[in-house]
Amino acid sequence: MSQELLRIQDLEMHFPIKEGVLQKTTGYVKAVNGVSLSVNKGETLGIVGESGCGKSTLAKTILGLLKPTSGDIFYEGESILNYNAKQMHELRRNIQMVFQDPFSSLNPRMQVGDIIAAPLKAYKTTKNVKQRVQELMELVGLKPEYYHRLPHEFSGGQRQRIGIARAIALEPKLIVCDEPVSALDVSVQAQVINLLEDLQKELGLTYIFIAHDLSVIKHMADRVGVMYLGKVMELSDNDSFYQNAQHPYTNALLSAIPLPDPVKEKERERIVLKGDLPSPANPPSGCVFHTRCPRAQDYCKKNVPLLETKEDGTHTVACFFPIEHAEQIQN
Ligand SMILES: Nc1ncnc2c1ncn2[C@@H]1O[C@H](COP(=O)(O)OP(=O)(O)O)[C@@H](O)[C@H]1O
Ligand SMILES: [Mg+2]
After folding, report:
1. What is the atom index within ligand 1 of the atom nearest the CA of 227?
2. Which of 55, 59, 118, 246 pairs as cysteine with 322 (C-beta 3.0–4.6 A)?
3. Beta strands 206-211 and 223-228, pairing class
4. d(CA 183, CA 156)
5. Any signal peptide, and if so, which residues (predicted)?
6. DSSP H helical segments within the chain, as ranges?
7. Using alpha carbons only, what angle is made at residue 10 by residues 28 and 254, rounded to the nearest 5 degrees?
8. Helix, coil or strand: residue 57
9. Residues 6, 174: contact at Cβ < 8 Å?
10. Cα–Cα distance between 75 and 81 in angstroms, integer?
């Protein structure tokens, strides 16, 4: 039996929209709008969805950087939302983050050694900080001699390695990777993903791995969740996800993955969704995807589909008219 490390229940993060000199609240951006999911020890949960669907906001609530509007977050079975400062300090040790942008997430005036040393000093985990930093640098594939260099002296991929060294410094259990390779060249992306995979094996890490396209997480996630306008549309085991995707939105995302075989790639039919992504300040009624869904019926405009478990037990989908096996995009 896999053991649950983190569970998110009915989580909502609504940002108030304030207008006028009196800064009156005129509405809410529903960035995360009722998300429930769990993460098991040692696994990689991939989260995908287009820009603005609430991925980073979800990450920040898990890290305790944002206080959610409602819902709950359990870490090792305990609700963390009412933790006091001391409990939060301990928790932060176990949950770390790797950010999307390796350029802005590192202080440009700090030497890399000091950047990686910061969490060690804050938690006083070791007397020999310098030695531990050098160990960490080696672990992520950076020469320890670079200790005194500044972030701008490194390439994007190397900077992301610095961010990863900082994230693993305290031996956390969970790392939330928020689009860690999106800002990197394709050739460098694979190296950073390989590093993250090696570290996971070596250190027994659990990952929530956020990406805006599916190709990045295809080979690394154990389970995949698809978000759209602050909601999870489909969540399943990796195999089942790629072979048996049932949500029309997932199907559209899958159709966008380039195929390695040039003949198949030429024949690949891309599903282009109609219209623009609606604003999370004014999400559509019923199923939030209905305005762009090729399968939408009147029923979908008035009723909200819940994430339901399908026959095989490993697959959950929030759709009234899920795609049958025969119609699916084959990858
Ligand atoms: N601090 C904030 N205040 C107001 N709106 C925000 C804030 N952070 C994010 N948003 C809005 O919430 C929505 C989701 O954003 P985000 O979580 O960054 O999405 P993603 O990471 O999937 O691109 C967007 O519409 C964004 O503009
Ligand atoms: Mg983001």
Report:
1. 22
2. 246
3. unpaired
4. 8
5. none
6. 55-62, 85-94, 112-123, 129-139, 156-168, 186-203, 214-217, 238-243, 248-255, 262-267, 298-302
7. 85
8. helix
9. yes
10. 10
Phi, psi of 237 (to 5 degrees): -60, 150
Q: Token pair of 13, please?
A: 């993060």
Q: Is the CB of 56 under 6 A from ligand 1?
A: yes
Query: Looking at ligand 1, which residue's alpha carbon is closest to its atom 13?
Result: 31
Q: Exposure of 311 by Cβ count < 10 A (0-12 exposed, 13-18 middle, 19+ buried)?
A: exposed
CA of 212 to the centre of ligand 2 (A): 8
Token couple for 128: 């020999």
- Length of the chain in terms of residues written: 331
**Three-state secondary-structure class, residue 249:** helix
Contacts for 290 with CB less than 8 Å, ≥ 6 apart? 284, 296, 300, 301
Amino acid at 298: D
Share of the chain above pLDDT 70, in %: 98
pLDDT in tens, 268-325: 888 889 888 999 999 999 999 999 999 999 999 999 999 988 777 788 999 999 998 6
Q: How far is 167 from 163, CA to CA, in rounded Å?
A: 6
Residue 163: what are its φ and ψ, rounded to 5°? -60, -35
CA distances from 160 to 172, 196, 217, 323 (A): 17, 11, 17, 39
Residue 198 φ/ψ, nearest 5 degrees: -60, -45
How high is the pLDDT of residue 92?
94
Apex 180 CA angle, 176 and 184, nearest 5 = 180
The identity of residue 141, as a single letter, is G
Q: Which atom of ligand 1 is nearest to the CA of 281?
A: 25
Q: Are 73 and 51 in contact (CB under 8 A)?
A: no
Query: How many Å is the maximal CA-CA distance in the chain?
Result: 65
The tokens for 59 are: 């990450």
Please state the domain extents for the chain. Answer: 225-330
The alpha carbon of 150 and the centre of ligand 1 are apart by a number of angstroms equal to 30
Cβ–ligand 1 contact at 57 (below 6 Å): yes
What distance in angstroms lies between residue 59's CA and the mean position of ligand 2's atoms?
9
